[in-house]
Specification:
The chain is mainly alpha-helical and about 400 residues long. Helices cover about 75% and strands about 0% of the residues. It is built from 21 helices and no strands. The radius of gyration is 20 Å and the shape is globular.
Length: about 400
């Protein structure tokens, strides 16, 4: 357990302004911010387009989060490039691929099949980019500042989602969904420029050549570790099921979906700000279980079809529970050998994103037969059940590896 003095040092070292004075982190952060905004705009544009053309809750949900399905392919095949390749070159290359993919979505008249194919391709490369970015983050900032840096990125992700959904809803009054994709392409290009001009090259961390064999070897070691398995389970499944609830908001109430999605992003921002900036590591770990319950429980009210104001408050409160990922990510980093940190963090992110896609598919598929409100409540109840039943595994993870208090 960290001492008061070490916790104070971590907080002092981890001030957000101090982080942004680091030129490399500032560039990495700017690229992340612009990419998050572009992703929010793209997801809203594609979800709206698919809903207009198909009126299918399943296809609408999958279109918003379908890219996450391909993340698992990156985790299973080439994720070792996150540690074995020059990280700056890797990030710039993958950001260029993202730019090409978003620009292609802006082409008018593109068939839906082609749009879904683009989603899968983009998901694959985005998962590799996330691994490279998170691996580089662990080198760019000191260890004591890692949690605040992740917290700032999580807060920004929520903030950009708020702006993206709100801007998307407003711009749709003047632009087509293809026009929103064009705006997203501009933001993606600016993200590419930010990273290319500020981030310097770093050394290769792996001593083995990256590739399929190296990826499988590191993944096997990761999944053989009982503490890491428990952490991954709780980082992936409850989170993904709640994203499935979010994926049905357009189908539940198309007229207020932008408001509900923005409220969710605002709640995520507040949760990450509170947990990442105001709590020390020990307090973060002690509140992690309660946060995982908060993540899903408010969605149960959708079964009662309350007024929009109540729904907005519920989504806002629930999304604050996404901050539970921060103490779990900290613990996972503690259990990870330095040479494969990028790959392990990439696998964690890819698995979380894949479960978001699975959650969207599960919720969307169920909504083909049940009312969207009933489905949202049922999926939220399943998330609560997974959190409660898996708690003993997380408790045991506290004593695995280094014997410090866990989440």
């Amino acid at each position: 357990m960290p001492s008061d003095s070490s916790a104070h040092t971590a907080r002092a070292a981890g001030g957000y302004l101090d982080l942004l004075r680091n030129g490399e982190f500032a560039g990495l952060y700017a690229g992340f911010t612009l990419t998050a905004a572009a992703n929010a705009l793209s997801g809203f544009a594609l979800g709206t387009l698919v809903d207009q053309r198909t009126h299918s809750p399943f296809l609408t949900a999958v279109s918003m989060y379908g890219a996450t399905f391909a993340s698992v392919l990156g985790a299973l095949t080439l994720m070792s490039v996150a540690d074995g390749s020059r990280p700056r070159r890797t990030i710039v290359t993958l950001q260029s691929v993202s730019l090409a993919g978003v620009a292609a979505q802006a082409v008018p008249g593109l068939p839906l099949a082609a749009r879904f194919a683009l989603l899968l391709v983009m998901g694959f490369f985005q998962s590799l980019g996330t691994g490279a970015r998170m691996g580089l983050l662990a080198e760019v900032v000191p260890g004591s500042a890692y949690a605040p840096a992740r917290s700032l990125m999580n807060i920004t992700s929520g903030g950009m989602a708020i702006l993206g959904y709100a801007a998307g809803a407003s711009l749709l009054r003047y632009l087509s969904p293809q026009g929103l994709f064009a705006v997203a392409a501009v933001l993606t290009g600016l993200a590419l420029a930010a990273v290319a001009t500020t981030v310097r090259e770093h050394s290769i961390r792996l001593t083995h050549r990256p590739g399929l064999r190296q990826t499988w070897s590191a993944n096997a070691a990761l999944l053989a570790h009982s503490g890491q398995r428990a952490l991954l389970l709780n980082l992936w499944v409850p989170n993904g099921l709640v994203v499935g609830c979010e994926a049905l908001l357009i189908s539940y109430d198309p007229g207020h979906a932008g408001t509900l999605l923005a409220a969710g992003s605002a709640g995520m921002l507040l949760g990450d700000l509170t947990v990442g900036r105001l709590l020390d590591a020990d307090r973060r770990r002690r509140c992690a279980f309660a946060l995982r319950l908060l993540l899903a429980a408010p969605y149960l009210v959708f079964a009662l079809h309350p007024p929009v104001l109540v729904l907005t408050a519920s989504v806002f409160a629930a999304s604050a529970g996404f901050a539970a990922t921060l103490p779990l990510q900290e613990r996972l980093l503690e259990l990870t050998p330095e040479p494969v940190r990028g790959q392990v963090q990439g696998v964690e992110s890819a698995g979380r994103m894949t479960w978001q896609g699975l959650g969207a598919a599960i919720a969307g598929g169920a909504a083909q037969y049940l009312a969207p409100g009933t489905t949202i409540a049922a999926v939220a109840a399943l998330s609560v059940a997974v959190t409660v039943l898996s708690r003993p595994l997380v408790v045991r993870a506290r004593t695995v590896g280094v014997g410090r208090a866990g989440a």
